[in-house]
User: What shape does this take?
Amino acid sequence: MLEHMALNIAHIGLPKAASTYLQLHYFAKIGCPFFSTQPPFAWPEELGFVFETNAVWYADILARSKFFSREEREQNYQRTVGSSFPKWEMAARRFASQTEGLSALLSAEGLSSLALPIARHHAALLKSAGIGRIVLITRRQTDYAVSLWRQFLLAEDRFARFVTFDTLFCAAAPGQAVVDMEWSSYLEIYDAVFGQDNVLALPYEQLASSPKDFFVHCNRFLGVDESIAPPSDRQENPSRRDDVYHGLKVDQAIPFVWMPRFRRLLHEVAKHDPSIMRVLGLERAYPMSVATESLDHIRKIHRHGNQRLADRMQMDFGIYGYF
Assistant: This one.
């Protein structure tokens, strides 16, 4: 299947942008050494920075009464990461020496980082790890934000409380929200580190509407047989459609309640006995609705960035609703 794939490549896997589908049905089938954080694949121990950096950014994930602002989050990240970077860089170089000449392919949602400060560190560390090319899949910010918000709360129960849509995704300007969605800025980081010719960016919407064209672009960039195309009828990790998030009250003193795994277990038990959460006094229902004004605001603040993205990718993003 391989034709002339010579460089180690990293797929920057945005969550809710077909990353799981691509990992299971495309990247793993190409015929090169493949590493991923997606089960059943393995992730190199030398590249553990993926987990550590994201854990720092969401250091407040189990806090009972406080959710960091963007400014607090960034300050905490910069304080913590500086001392660890040399260690991560040394480990990344070990991976580079171990995979030299192998044409390895990495794919991890954690590489996307959801924040530009982490993306800058990840780009530098991937370069140290011997990565020569980057694949980035973007998605229309409004759809991405709604889908990711539902994933965080309904599927992962990631936070120790109900976190509003606006808290995570809305800010006065790009780069001020907890989750960064200015894809053009991510792309500029990768272009600067790897060179524009070594960075492929494609919209998720092209995969959904024209999968043949999408995989022609991917195959040419990766240097693999252009006939490779995974089944288009598969869907992985679909978005949840629940109207209500059955969250846990934040004023509980039960220690285990603050552990994500325990909360998920409680919710699984509640599927069979819905009364258990109410009996324990843990449940509070929150509507999973997003105001039209919030979506309009997201569309507005990313308009200029999306135009830069369209110009860089030489594609008409208007047909995909980015404007």
